Amino acid sequence: MLFFLIWLVILSASAYLFFVASGSLSPLRPNMNSIIFYYSFFVSSYIGALLIVLKVDHNYMINRMVFEENRYAGFFSISFVMLVFPLVMYLLSKLVGFDAKKEYSSYLEKEVVLPFAGKNEFFLLFFLISFVSLAAIAYTVLKTAHIPIFELILNRTGMSPGELRIDAQRNFGGNVLIRNIFAIALTPILSLIAYVYAAKTKDPKWQVLSAALFMGAIFISVYDLAKSPIFFYFIMFMLLRLYIGKMRFTWKKLAGWGFLGAGLLILMYVFIQGATNVQTYLSYNSGPIGRLIFAQIAPTFLHFDTFSEAIPFLHGRSLPSSLIGLFDIEQVRSARLVMERVFPEKVAEGTAGVLNTLFIAEAYANFGYLGVVAGTVYVAAIVQAVYISFLRLPKNPVFLSLFVYFTINIPRTLVGGFVDFIFNPIWMMITVFFIGLLVFIRLRIDFSAYLQQRKAGIRR
């Protein structure tokens, strides 16, 4: 009962702080911070943490814990994040004079500005970039020996879905950067930008390009049988429509989408996981429900159970290889070490990858409880700085699409690891690429205008 009361008080305080730091916690007006609260923290982390500390989880991962006291260490560390993370966001907002409620509402009401909409050279450049992105998808298909979604449908290899996914990741015969950046990361963002231009201009060439990119984004989201990317892509698409005024969220629509998503998820479990037992879907600690409330947070407890107990702290060995490589240190991801310790049989079979979890787990694996405290403050400040920046940037298709991309991918990364918030090459490349695109086109147009003015002056 004591743990439940602590949980309830912390949750209430966290909800209030998230509200004042985000401007809205209403599901009808979602934003990056509200998604972090509901998805990354409440559903994916704090419900499971309560059940684990109460010892009523009956979860297969928690059953692998050796030191029972780490149930309490994990619970109080997650409670710390629930409280301090939004507190740091709120304090940063006060520091820079950010009125979350006012500025978020203003952003929703802003009209979308369409820079270069009438410039053929902009469309041509965007078309060429889109062609490269779609070509990267084709390249990914050609360089992957077994395309998981095709193999599942045709059943040619006899490998399980888990083995197909691992095989597609580890035995990819091409350049990983081409696949990860141009195919997986770039295509969804390009599809969002093209959709804004298509929806606002009604121009057929933008509509055709938007449709092609949309289909490409869907394929690259499902080709490896991952269940979450396609859901997150559709959420990005709906958020974009909300932000440009093409859609209004209602409770009826949310309920309909929820039932549709649940149905699709069950179908994916049946055909991909081979799960046909009805009890699997109804149980709170297995199937879709167990994946939501335990799969992301149980590895956090396993991190506390592993580091300093079975394995020494990493002392920064999880930091980006570009940094520690300067000191001739090989990068080691804590999520992989935990998997090797807890599920050695799955690693030996080749069906296990990493146990990604709440970002504090990786921070703890490297620096102990100091990492939990400092990591929470650091990541919260970064997240709020990103949120404030996008709300204050011009509302054009590029910045808007990047905002939607980070609105979904930051919450996902919070339950993926800590190091990605120190140096994330894909995030940096995407941001620099699109801002560079805007700057290049603006300079190109300004230079053309300058040449025309000079030419007109010479004629006079």
What does the model show?
The protein is an all-alpha fold and 460 residues long. It has 2 domains: 2-111 and 272-392, no CATH class; 120-243 and 424-453, no CATH class. It has helices at residues 2-22, 32-53, 70-96, 100-109, 120-143, 148-154, 161-170, 176-201, 204-222, 228-243, 251-273, 278-282, 287-295, 298-306, 321-324, 334-342, 344-349, 359-392, 397-414, 425-459. The protein starts with a helix and ends with a helix.
In short:
The protein has helices spanning 2-22, 32-53, 70-96, 100-109, 120-143, 148-154, 161-170, 176-201, 204-222, 228-243, 251-273, 278-282, 287-295, 298-306, 321-324, 334-342, 344-349, 359-392, 397-414, 425-459.
Termini separation (Å)? 88 Å
| Unreliable residue stretches | none
Please, how many domains?
Answer: 2
Largest sheet: none
Order of helices and strands: HHHHHHHHHHHHHHHHHHHH
Over all CA atoms, what is the radius of gyration? 23 Å
Estimate what percentage of residues fall within beta strands.
Answer: under 5%
Which of globular, elongated, flat, extended, rod-shaped describes the shape?
Answer: globular
Number of helices: 20
Mean pLDDT: 88
What share of the residues lie within helices?
over 70%
Count of individual beta strands = 0
Structural class: mainly alpha
